[in-house]
Amino acid sequence: xxxxxxxxxxxxxxxxxxxxxxxxxxxxxxxxxxxxxxxxxxxxxxxxxxxxxxxxxxxxxxxxxxxxxxxxxxxxxxxxxxxxxxxxxxxxxxxxxxxxxxxxxxxxxxxxxxxxxxxxxxxxxxxxxxxxxxxxxxxxxxxxxxxxxxxxxxxxxxxxxxxxxxxxxxxxxxxxxxxxxxxxxxxxxxxxxxxxxxxxxxxxxxxxxxxxxxxxxxxxxxxxxxxxxxxxxxxxxxxxxxxxxxxxxxxxxxxxxxxxxxxxxxxxxxxxxxxxxxxxxxxxxxxxxxxxxxxxxxxxxxxxxxxxxxxxxxxxxxxxxxxxxxxxxxxxxxxxxxxxxxxxxxxxxxxxxxxxxxxxxxxxxxxxxxxxx
Amino acid sequence: xxxxxxxxxxxxxxxxxxxxxxxxxxxxxxxxxxxxxxxxxxxxxxxxxxxxxxxxxxxxxxxxxxxxxxxxxxxxxxxxxxxxxxxxxxxxxxxxxxxxxxxxxxxxxxxxxxxxxxxxxxxxxxxxxxxxxxxxxxxxxxxxxxxxxxxxxxxxxxxxxxxxxxxxxxxxxxxxxxxxxxxxxxxxxxxxxxxxxxxxxxxxxxxxxxxxxxxxxxxxxxxxxxxxxxxxxxxxxxxxxxxxxxxxxxxxxxxxxxxxxxxxxxxxxxxxxxxxxxxxxxxxxxxxxxxxxxxxxxxxxxxxxxxxxxxxxxxxxxxxxxxxxxxxxxxxxxxxxxxxxxxxxxxxxxxxxxxxxxxxxxxxxxxxxxxxx
Lengths: 373, 373
Hints:
CATH superfamily of the largest domain in chain A: Type I PLP-dependent aspartate aminotransferase-like (Major domain)
Number of domains of chain A: 2
Low-confidence stretches of chain A: none
Mean pLDDT of chain A: 97
Largest sheet of chain A: 7 strands, mixed
Strand order of the largest sheet of chain A: 2-10-9-8-5-3-4
CATH architecture of the largest domain in chain A: 3-Layer(aba) Sandwich
Oligomer: homodimer
Order of helices and strands of chain A: EHHEHEHEHEEEHEHEEHHHHEEHEEH
Distance between the termini of chain A: 50 Å
């Protein structure tokens, strides 16, 4: 190919009510367009320090090792296992959805023996049952759970399991990809050892970064490994040396994405965590009520429904693909399809960060009125 | 933390003459600020197809599997080994610099037995010697080489080794992080099986993406593995299913970075590869001449000097840190320090993509005149 004949790209301005990405504040786009600087420039290092400090705020932790991995949420899931699992180690994972299942695959690829604590999709893992299994496996190195299961809309309670893990050697690894920035994630208080998230959901920053925080207990375990971490790119010991005081080059910092994350976090603290959580709670309830009015049935277990992601069974007679295509093409609204065996059966409707506004609920209900009634 | 008291961030407008990132065209920043869309949005899928097509152009390949990994160049190095190495496999790596050495570490972490073909930093790996070692190890699964060694400024000739690898079962893995977009990288003609690069050097796109291309021979090997790829995030089989026709969700596409890469590639084809390579060649020569005029000595082996990255030994009496700090703080010019044992001894001066303009050579020589004379 000598000449490229394609034109400009003008992506549509979607209302992103799927499972993420969510809409992005214009200040974040502006920040992202600031000039790129080098990976050891004092200004990028200062930016990284600020990101760490603000991430400690949203994770509600004092963990020194709190940073953003240069990859999406999935890279954080991998980092959470690859750094702590050595071949043959036992891990116990609560499996009640697509991402929990992915956790077991990731752990297996690190050479872990995986004990699956299965539950029906749409239900929580009963904490007492999880603790019982952990007691049966005192050698378990990791207990893995998904806080907000994006495939089902279920919010997993963590306090009891965290309290148990605090008392034993087992690390509690939590996927907060969907919840961070939209719901309480009390890393220190709940006893979470490794918690990862993503930039593009309730933080409302473009996809591409993965916030992660690691407890001193987990870092000690990392340092006492007998084998090297099988991933160089996701080695938290090396990332710590770059993000921490040593400033040893590991990879080229994605400066533009760092600018975006920094601005997105600033916006969160301008609103305040409490108010932000309340906004997600209130509008999540409102959305659920509206959808029920159209004949959708709430899929997730009552009392454990995520505010920022509502999973609903389609009303009789609604063609999944056709309805979603009309929403996207005629109304510029994205809602999420079902994952795995739920494909065609449910929708996943997100109200995350910047998208979590009453105006967008109105846009959706208006469109649904046109399409469905 | 309830309130964040930090202000706005206004990074300085640096002239990025280090080892990357390079300066970014304003059209790329503009494209990056387009609204984010979902990871299965028909518009993002079309964008990905266009990226693949243009990447095939710069890689000079017809490889179907040509895509951008959602990580930096280092993630591409890891992908190039993690997908093809199974525990106990033998790989032969030419080691004449920091990144070649990193290749051996990455390969080891995948469970490979590594044969190091060592050479003094600053010199090429003699192709005949490399082929001799490969002949001694007919079971070698991979031959790994760095095309443009960013730590030394050396350009490795690949044609002879590629021709040999074509005839045997060994895969040729090439790091083109520094060269792609600024120098000929003839993947098909030279017989390269896996070639990875980075967005932030001669492609002049912000850091965060890693273009990679994989030959059918390598994909066959991937499909015939006995064990699973140890990385889920970097599994090329899964990435192929997302980038290819199947469109199976793997991770959330970093839309903003994709927009940026698409625009950066468009700019490359507007200029044309040949003209672009000539620009790098001509101005690289000019820079070398200018630096020699200040008493810097060219570090890399004659005849094999990279046009886009010039490594120079500091003149007697020049304080590395002090001079680089003055360049950065007083003149907003970044040049690169030495890596590894070359720290304090050499500078690495980049002329990559958008930074490769005569005006920036003038800025640098003007500043050096102030500082050094």
